[in-house]
Amino acid sequence: MSQSVQQSSTQSRVLVLLYSISAYLAFLAVFMFFIGWSVGIILPWTIDGPALWFQTPTPFAAVAVNTGLIVLFGLQHSIMARQSFKSMLTRVVPQAAERATFVWISNLMLAMIIVCWQPLPGAIWHAEGMLYAIVLAVNLAGWLILVSSTFMVDHFDFIGLRQAWNNLRRRTPEPPAFVTAFAYRFVRHPMMTGLIIGLWVVPIMSWGHLVLSVALSAYILVGTRFEEQDLIKTFGEQYRQYRARVPMLFPRPGSSVSATSKQTGITGTQTQR
User: Fold this and answer.
1) Is the bond leading into 50 cis (omega within 30 degrees of zero)?
2) Which residues are within 8 A (CB) of 165 and not within 5 positions of it... i.e. 6 or more apart?
3) Residues in the chain with pLDDT < 70?
4) What are phi and psi of 189, to 5 degrees?
5) Where would you say this protein principally sits, based on its record (predicted)?
6) CA 187 to CA 255: how far, in whole Å?
7) pLDDT score of 217
8) Integer Cα distance of 263 and 174 in angstroms
9) Which of 135, 117, 137 is nearest to 37 (CA)?
10) Is residue 26 packed enough to be buried (19+ CB in 10 Å), middle (13-18) or exposed (0-12)?
11) CA distance 241 to 205
């Protein structure tokens, strides 16, 4: 290989890494903004308004717009998670940038929800005083569960940085291995468990927030079913036994698996996305 070709190859690998880093930084910004916006803390803009871009004339139209935003978000995640779409995408972008591309588009979809969301004021419940502090603490714990669950497997693979780093170093990525570590011993999808807590255990539940919670919870239930079909195709009977023993979202007595009963590596849940 000539020196110019080698230099060009190295530059392209560096660009993929920079692209992945930008996707990660954007994710951190949008995700943190979403938490503050949805819970109604720190930020001057909240889910209960006023609308950041445009205002619908009626509550019915507001519900339709908000539901449509969640449907688009769910479709993007579900379609881009399919292996057929990944194969098509990698004809356009490098293999090492596939996950970062997923993250970038997810960032844009989540930002669109925030910008286009139509407020529906009127509180279903509104915690105050000490109860407010307790509910807020549980809510933040839910978001912490979501984030920490990515580190229980491979946070940097989940976010696309490891793929770009391996590509820069010309390392072949390891094949996925099935593992049940930490929270994955007790529930199959702890990230979704954390998200449900973050969506439902809120100090102020407005009608607008109820639409967000119901719509995203519906997506979680539907999306995880499709994801698990992919996991069964990848891990076969091993995942079927895991699914039979361990509940999907909330632990129950006697349903955990041994921490040493599986191989070490990246979980199927995280790898399949």
Assistant:
1) yes
2) 17, 156
3) 1-8, 176-177, 254-273
4) -135, 70
5) membrane
6) 8
7) 97
8) 13
9) 117
10) middle
11) 38
Report pTM.
Answer: 0.88
